[in-house]
Specification:
The complex is a heterodimer of chains A (325) and B (287).
Chain A (H helix, E strand, L loop, with lengths): L25 E10 L2 E11 L4 E5 L6 H8 L7 E6 L2 E2 L3 H4 L2 E4 L11 H12 L3 H14 L15 H13 L5 E5 L7 H16 L3 E5 L3 H7 L2 E6 L2 E7 H4 L3 E8 L6 H4 L4 E4 L2 E4 L7 H10 L3 E9 L2 H12 L6
Parallel strand pairs in A: 3-8, 3-9, 6-7, 7-8
Antiparallel strand pairs in A: 1-2, 1-4, 4-5, 9-10, 11-13, 11-14, 12-13
Chain B lengths: L2 H17 L1 H30 L4 H41 L1 H6 L5 H35 L6 H23 L4 H27 L3 H13 L2 H12 L2 H15 L11 H24 L3
Helix pairs in contact in B: 1-5, 2-3, 2-5, 3-5, 3-6, 3-7, 3-9, 5-6, 5-11, 6-7, 6-9, 6-11, 7-8, 7-10
The chains are: A alpha/beta (325), B mainly alpha (287).
Amino acid sequence: MTVPRTAPAGSGTPIGDNGAMTELAIETRGLRKAYGSTVALESLDLAVRPGEVVGLLGPNGAGKTTAVKLLLGLVHPSGGDGRVLGRPLGDRGARARVGYLPELFRYQAWLTADEVLRLHAGLAGLPWPLQQTEIPRVLGLVGLADRARDRVGGFSKGMQQRLGLAVALLGDPALVVLDEPTSALDPVGRDDVRAIIREARARGSAVLLNSHLLGEVERVCDRAVIVNRGRVVRAGSLGELLGESAVRLRVTGLPADLSPLAAFGPLGEEDGWLVVRPVDPDRVPELVATAVAMGGRVHAVDPGRRSLEELFLDVVRGQAPGGQR
Amino acid sequence: MNPRVVLVVARLTLREITRRRILWVLGLLSVASVALVGWAVGRLVAQAHEHGVNAYELQLGVSQILIMIAFMFSFVLAMSAAFLAAPAIASDVETGTVLAMLARPMHRADLVVGRWLGLGIIVTAYAVLSGLLAIGAVRLVSDYAPPLVGVALAFLGFQAVAVMTVALALGTRLPGIAAGAITVVLFGLAWFLGVLGSLSGAFGVQGLAGAGEAFRLLFPTDGLWRGVIYGLEPPQVVSMTQLGGPLAASNPFYADTPPTTAFTVWCVIWVVGVLALGAWLFRRREL
């Protein structure tokens, strides 16, 4: 089990009942959920700071949605412990400061967008004067200002997901939990969601983003937590996770013996490119010169680092029974 | 439980039902049925006049027809209440609508009680308005008015609320269609055992009569239905039936006494208990 490196759960602030023990938006230790003999979540250790966007990644069935439901008190834990905004899991005081977009976003089809937001404002106990400013604000934020009086039943899936985002952002919550927030959106919508998440972070909200779209996570998250088979298998800032620099060379005419190049780092081959990973970025010119000196004809040099998708596949496949590493 | 949130959910329920077509369809069907009943009773009254039936006999006949109409109406009302209430929470869970709502700072009991309150208002209003319409139509064409309209309508509404509560409570754990079907079966069984209990009492089959009484406590809709009959039964029928002895009194469409206060109080406790059970089941449910 790997605990997040930048903000390890329980580091110096033990979980107790004194309420004021932590400034973390989310903190769980060994959180477990089993349905009979089926274990949905084995042991989740997670920490999310205020003002931080954390991506929760994992293959299907890894336990991500179960983790989210546990945090919101929608299912009851079988073991472990956790706190949301300094309160025990499911605490209503904490939920008053949490916005949630479920993976299965459905809202009352017979209500208008404005009425859905008024319903949630009423359930959240938002004072009436605040509702008058908050509802237009969030509708504008998700691009539905001109559809406020339209019935949700007439909305496309993408518009319903935008409405769900507006519901989640209502009342400027301290923690926003988004479960696959772009699954029904087109590229423009996805770009809008990234802007919305950045704005929420700028306002000081913590955001937990549960997504399959690794590119989205890579673009918007400060940290990522990869969950596989109910456990956290890798966690850290994107810089830490993707820190390994690499270089890709499109090169022909090299001899069979590549040992001079192997001195720069482990060699690999991807789609006809020669890949050296990890590599010291300062030594890339020397690497290219060595390839030329060996008789190679260098057509292209593509410096870069590993993508989140590559890391994800390595981590998940490496863990899978019989998987490749 | 938070009364403010309960009211928010009750308002949502009222808005949902009034915006969906089902209530208006039910309303139109009820008006059409009342019109048909009025026309049919009017025809019967005209025929009776033609055959020289006197006013006293006519009143007796119309009173029994009205009880039959009320019986059919109570069944339709129970079915409507069951199939309105059963999916009220069940479909929210099935579609996922409930997830975003319950992530708000509310108790799950707030959702159950709010749904019950909204449905209770609708069901009671529908029972009273439709009942008044039917009684009014019969009075218009026959000049007959039952002795205790208020009592009859109160027990009719109470019976519908009891059925609605069971369907809602079952819907917190079961799919809507299953909760509705089970409720209707229980309602039918209660009536059947009530009739069987009355007959077995008249014939002195004590074990069966006891079973009927026991089920009347477990599922009291038949006992409440007896209150409806009592409110509609004219005193002349009561006097004649009492002269006829226990066999005459075993008629399932006859009641010479209203449900006792103890039974009525038990029904209130029963409804509250079933609602609390539904809230408890829902609180334990994994979503």
